[in-house]
Specification:
This protein is mainly alpha-helical. The protein has 24 helices and no strands.
Length: 415
């Protein structure tokens, strides 16, 4: 009996001690669990802290960060919104902006970062966050202006130079991008992303050896999927097909859901006339991303090369009929109509025109490749060669132009 009473007393004391844990102690425990990446345990602790002290904004912010780590962006946004209601300031608006960006609500994220800047015009991270969002929205001028301001406020933060480098590269300012990467690397020599970003710009400038060296360094520091893919693309440009395939394989091994890696590997296999392997990659890309606007056309062309004309047309028609993104008169629709024989070649090539130079070049590179392939399939090798050359001449350096170059080389060697 005494033993039973002792056990009950011990249980009561333990329960009382647990119940007497303060909100701050729960928060501290949650922070320790977050640091250990036990986000479920951290969220439970923060929730207990909130139950004890529901008007402390800090606890909502901490729980919001933990939820963000779990990709629960709606939950994170709700927590940051609550914190803003309790204590509006630049930091909490910026925190919510980051969560909205994670959810791909780019307009909402930009608005929150702008609000953060209104609260504190000297909070550099708000400019950095808004600049990143503007980069994703292709507002490169606005992005660069934001990174300029962030750098003015905190000139020794490497990430600001990295993000400005990306905006500069995407705008076509490759030398400026390289200069920014140089500075980022100077400030943080072990920054794999800065080496990767510099490699991307060097590749666009034709400095393939320099690009490969930077990709090697990026992979050494952080062997992620994008670095493997980038090096593979550079190796294709150098003519190292086996090395490129090995890199594409590695990118897919690291990230089995990497759509771009399947597409690039599929295109390289297409260029090697390994039709069945190519179509397998294109189908995988489309399986992973049913909205992919490129794989269906490659599947069509590959099946045409396999002699499956009717099946190729039927599959492309099914894709067009079930297409949920885009418009009926957009570029992808025009390309499908041409390949299916529903749009004249001249009209298709004219449809590639675009006031945006980058889109204009991209669409013409693909258009000349598609038109050249159809000419080739119809036995008109002379016109096909002319069209492939025009695709290469766009200097876009993407898969359509790479395939056009491979076809052109094959036609010339056969003469």
């Amino acid at each position: 009996m005494k033993k039973t009473l002792s056990l009950l007393l011990l249980l009561l004391l333990t329960t009382t001690a647990a119940c007497s844990k303060s909100a701050s102690e729960y928060d501290k425990s949650g922070n320790a669990k977050s640091k250990a990446r036990d986000f479920d345990g951290a969220i439970a602790d923060y929730t207990n802290a909130i139950a004890l002290r529901p008007n402390d904004a800090r606890f909502y912010v901490d729980r919001g960060f933990a939820r963000e780590e779990k990709k629960d962006f709606d939950g994170a946004i709700a927590d940051f919104t609550k914190a803003i209601g309790l204590m509006p300031n630049a930091y909490y608006y910026a925190d919510r902006g980051l969560a909205k960006a994670g959810k791909r609500d780019l307009d909402g994220a930009e608005a929150d970062y702008t609000k953060a800047i209104e609260f504190d015009p000297k909070y550099a991270l708000s400019y950095d966050g808004r600049g990143s969002v503007r980069t994703y929205k292709h507002d490169f001028d606005g992005a660069i202006a934001d990174f300029d301001k962030a750098i003015e406020l905190e000139p020794n933060r490497a990430s600001y130079y990295f993000w400005r480098a990306r905006a500069n590269r995407l705008k076509g300012f490759f030398y400026a991008a390289i200069a920014d990467c140089d500075k980022a690397i100077e400030l943080r020599p072990d920054d794999a992303y800065a080496y990767f970003e510099r490699a991307q710009s060097k590749k666009m400038l034709g400095d393939l050896d320099g690009a490969l060296a930077d990709y090697d360094k990026a992979i050494q520091l952080k062997p992620d999927d994008a670095a493997w893919l980038g090096r593979g693309i550079a190796r294709v440009a150098k003519g190292d097909i086996d090395g490129a395939l090995a890199d594409y394989d590695k990118a897919i091994q690291v990230n089995p859901k990497y759509v771009a890696a399947y597409e690039y590997r599929g295109c390289l296999r297409y260029d090697q006339q390994a039709w069945k392997d190519a179509i397998s990659d294109f189908r995988k890309a489309l399986e992973l991303d049913p909205t992919d606007g490129y794989a269906p056309f490659r599947i069509f062309l590959t099946r045409m090369r396999l002699g499956e004309k009717d099946a190729a047309a039927k599959e492309l028609q099914q894709y067009v009929a079930g297409r949920k993104n885009g418009k009926t008169d957009d570029w992808e629709s025009k390309a499908a109509a041409f390949l299916l024989g529903q749009l004249a070649e001249d009209d298709f090539l004219k449809a590639a025109d675009n006031s945006d130079k980058k889109k204009n070049d991209d669409q013409h590179g693909a258009a000349w490749f598609y038109a050249g392939t159809m000419r080739l399939l119809n036995g008109d090798k002379s016109t096909a060669a002319d069209y492939f050359q025009k695709s290469v001449d766009t200097k876009v350096k993407r898969t359509s132009e790479t395939s056009a170059a491979a076809e052109l080389k094959r036609l010339k060697s056969a003469q």
